[in-house]
Amino acid sequence: MYSCDNEKYVGLVTEVDSIDGSCSVEWLGEGNKHLHNAWWKPEELQKEDSLPNLLAREMAHPFGQNREKADEFYERR
Q1: Residue 6 — very low, low, confident or very high, per pLDDT cuts 50/70/90?
Q2: How far apart are CA 50 and CA 47, in angstroms?
Q3: Cβ-count burial of 54 within 10 angstroms (0-12 exposed, 13-18 middle, 19+ buried)?
Q4: With a threshold of 0.70, does the pTM exceed it?
Q5: What are residue 71's phi and psi, to 5 degrees?
Q6: Within 13 Å and on the Cβ side, how many CA atoms surround 70?
Q7: Burial, 31: exposed, middle or buried (Cβ in 10 Å; 0-12, 13-18, 19+)?
Q8: DSSP label of 32
Q9: Cis ω on the peptide bond leading into residue 39 (within 30° of 0)?
């Protein structure tokens, strides 16, 4: 999940250019309609979290210690 413009516009990268690393982003939420989808330079985006990691953390049993295990399987940064 990425943000841009020093704001908390959250989106998911859907495609990465193999030459310069620029990204196509699917922005989440209605307030992000003014943002373009493609192509963002890597330095224009900030990685906030990993969606697989976030889902694994949130699906872990709340009384167990498995939230920390998500980092072993899905890197955040």
Answers
A1: low
A2: 8
A3: middle
A4: no
A5: -65, -25
A6: 20
A7: exposed
A8: G
A9: yes
